[in-house]
């Protein structure tokens, strides 16, 4: 093939090389020529070569379509990683349509330079006008063969490596290879199933505690025979509790409620890709999620030993409330396997005062209260699971739902919108508690209030937002502010202004609530009673790199796609030097997560 015949093909592959290089630099902050030329590029180039060979009569059109699709993938990965600070899998990108507010969120994430990924698409169109139709390239099949050998070698090598963290794995082995390996492992999931088994004593020992049977806990039965209300507040982070802005409390109702609550101020989210639905899973099962795949999308329909199932054996009826489409995040599968007697979605909850995902929280909460009289006639005791969602990103509320008079510098900012939405959510929590008291139910109930996950994170935060957060907090926004959620246990006569700073996770919510109710759960739980145990060791997948851990004294963030590993003091968030304990906790948390995976196996699809 002479030089003139080769030129169009050289240009097509050169443009792809530039795009792949830009992708590697942007996503992984690496300029490694080796990883670009011999790991990442060959797979994309092989796919391009195959496309050109298959559609050899339409070289420019096929090259243009392929380039456009790759640009779209790189564009989507960039936005996703900017928001979640983790690298998405092929599965995550398929879930982009799960959010009804995705359009607004995407607009917050886009940088004008992101569209440079499509520059080669434009250039290809211009080049095609010069060459019209590129000549056939008889030697292209030999190039494809060479690319296939290199791609196969790197992929086979990648398959032999453990995926502890997907982002770091993709950085070291190539993004395309990481997707292929995940597909391979998912297809052979049974063969990779964990056989780890831990006794309750062994599990507590890994966390640093001496095991005590549940019925011997000091708080066991403190709220015996009470109704249970679990109130999950969308995007509520712990740093807003007790704080004010220009003399205005962000959470005045929760602040007042603290006087008759036990408040855990050092509880970490543990959700994965399923975000809010993962939080529902964890708090209703006491089990971990898989992390990379929303657990609701893998359930096989088998009944799960859940909070509702256990309470049912003690005379409780159960109901769950979520004012959205029941098929959103497969809740039409989730709620039945959790054993709820009654399920309420937007089909039953009035679709009025629509904000973001659906009816405003005030509509949801009033609906749940209106159902109570009938339920209390039907059941001896009641468990109500209420999922609030008005305070969901992008946090923009109508004026009549804004309770804060924001300073001028907060107006129109992401932080300002967030504080307004949390203030609204707090108002609805306060109204709900007030009505329970008016109906005489507060003294007969255990009410658990908690946040599902962080709301302030990722690219929507501008430099201006960072400055506002620092001013609001009195220090720079840290991982602790991002990942800690408030957790309150309250009810008439139960507690008086108890605040506990011991480490907790979302897996601890269910066992703590059951202990207060004086009920034992027959199946293993990953969490424990927060009133009983002082030490803890938590895993968090997806939002922290694999190999990370949260321990009572320190937080270890394993190396990720861009940043090196770091060890932080859990109280001050100042850096520490790694030591032998760091390796031990890393090994121990891996055992805990593997045990969690083993407990999941009966309930998820292979």
Automatic annotation (TrEMBL):
Entries under InterPro entries matching the protein: Alkaline_phosphatase_core_sf, LtaS-like, OpgB/LTA_synthase_biosynth, Sulfatase_N
Recorded GO MF terms: metal ion binding
Domain of life: Bacteria
Sorted UniProt keywords: Cell membrane, Manganese, Membrane, Metal-binding, Transmembrane, Transmembrane helix
Pathway where it operates: Cell wall biogenesis; lipoteichoic acid biosynthesis
Subcellular location: Cell membrane
Residues holding substrate: 392
Classification via PANTHER family: LIPOTEICHOIC ACID SYNTHASE, PHOSPHOGLYCEROL TRANSFERASE I
Name used for this protein in its record: LTA synthase family protein
Native source organism of the sequence: Planococcus glaciei
